[in-house]
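User: Structure please.
Assistant: Input sequence and predicted structure:
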Amino acid sequence: MVVRPWTITERNGRAYARGVGDDKAGVAVHLAALRAFEGLPPVGVTVFVEGEEEIGSPSLANLLEENHDLLRADVFVIADSGNWDVGAPAFTTTLRGLVDCTVEVRVLDHALHSGSFGGVAPDALTALCRLLATLHDERGNVAIEGLRAGPGPDLDYPLDRLEAETGVLDGVGYLGDGPVVERLWTKPSATVLAIDATRVLDASNTLAPVARAKVSVRIAPDEDPAVAMQALTDHLLRHAPWGAQVLVTDGSQGAGSVIPFQGPVADAARAAFTEAWGTEPVLIGQGGSIPMVADFQRAFPEATVLVTAVCDPDSRAHGIDESLDLADFATACLAETLFLDRLRRGDA
């Protein structure tokens, strides 16, 4: 059987396809709520589909400035996060920010035979590995000086749940110290996303003159991305091994967010979601970054921003077999419909 990633396949109450949860389901929730009112919602609604979120929304701030009056609203509902569990809705109240860069290490002006000069002359890949290893301490905590870390919510994240969601192999330990929710949502994390070097298939006994890697750092919700980028750059330059020449090229930057969930609009949303789901929503953080949330907060500081969800912990966004629980999807559509109706009734 041939399964195409862009074709939805249904199995055991879940829909499988690339992007079925992140972010197609969020757009579909908005459309379903409008359809529930036959295209005539009880309050004024503008549907805004932003297509650059996965690359940090670089054009959005200017677009909001240029179309400020057109996009002005009392409430922004951004359906791009995750629920606490299947059948357990959530509103996201913190998001980590993101910075990334490319780091290049040079040690030679040309390649050398490893038998002739190995043991004296360094190779770039080994130097790069040693440099990347300095991003964490021995326990896996991020060791980049100057990065902030915030407190997490008073919410238990059981170890058995973490094991089920991550698929960490037997004997492999988890990174860092402190509560799981802090390590996931409010403390920085550093990831080596890719390395440019000779493929194993093409390897020869050669000292490589140059190697590079892409490094991504998630930052605390209230961290300044420019400050974090400078801290990452300074760290990589300062820890160059053996006097290697290090060049750091800035990549993308995205601000995190602290999203207050309070006031009459939040109360109306809580009531609507509780009615739809049959259980009160959980207030959670997310370790991922949605820079557009901060853009809307800056552009419309008087508005209420609600970050809702359709995905659940088993949705595997960005991965193979990305999926969506269809019952949760239907309930999310109902919840947003009830919320619009509560706004009509003046509950907010």
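The two ends are 51 Å apart (CA to CA).
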